[in-house]
Amino acid sequence: MKIKIDSPLDMHLHLRDEDMLKVVAPLSAQTFSGALVMPNLIPPITTKEQLLDYKNRIEEAKKYNNFKPYMTLFFKSDYTYEFLKEIKKDILAIKLYPAGITTNSEDGVANFSIDVLSPVLEAMSELGIVLSVHGETNGFVMDREAEFIPIYEKIAKRFPKLKIVMEHITTKEAVKALDEYENLYATITLHHLYITLDDVAGGLLRPHLFCKPIAKRPEDRMALRKVAFMAHPKVMFGSDSAPHPRYKKEAPGCAAGVFSAPVALAALAQIFDEADALESLQKFVSQNAQKIYNITPPRKEVVLEKEEFLVPSSYENVVPIFANETLRWKVVDVL
Ligand code: NCD
Ligand code: ZN
SS3 for 122? Predict the structure, then answer.
């Protein structure tokens, strides 16, 4: 059995920099036709020069054609209207991180008072720039996303024309919010469709499944699966593939992030097939994002076959999700 996916998009991707960029960029560019590239480098991307230089480094590292890096800027509450107007054509979204909530987010937002955020959000709303958000408070780790929902609601109500993407949602509460506010959208990762906290810490601790937001309960996963498998028009695939070198994962203080880009399409085909939802996959990995972000990615046709795929134990120094496991679907051709 074979299926073909047109122009798959990964709307939340960490490509890193330097040697890591050279390892991981081709692994996305091979099978995806575009990706929304996260700005949490050290230091984060906050200027036009940094942004364009980084984009050039990605173009040099990607090795495959027909892959478009859609760039993002790291949210700062002191950007001016003039700066945003000038940079608008070079970015697809601005990514807001609460300060210190995840990898390289120390320079994020510490004060969520609407008065502090308003000038930039107002400008983004007027200029039509999408707000992409890592929505977690600094509360108890399992409750962080649900506790953040009121902040999404506050921003969504105050700026009804601003498109807001709740990134890598993990809870039934976030799924519910999607249908309550017209301007709320979401990305869903591969790993949050597959795993719950039990897979991370219920048996032996599995550091390569540790990420932010942490995987939640079976009922949360069920809520995510429901909207993904029906290709709910407000959800898109965003892998949140977040590579860290093995020594940072297999360590007493394990870095957060699951590396999934090279296996993403095969593993998505598998789980959609198991749910009898293969007909929704095209929308989930491409059309929905094209509509939400109003983009037309480069043409790329990816052929997947129901055939065994033994996932490598590592790609250089990075261990992927499903390392050494056999998936039931495989990418067999890219046209
Ligand atoms: C991401 C990273 O490593 O950059 N980590 C993660 O656990 N997802 C950052 C992020 O998206 O939170
Ligand atoms: Zn991320």
Answer: helix
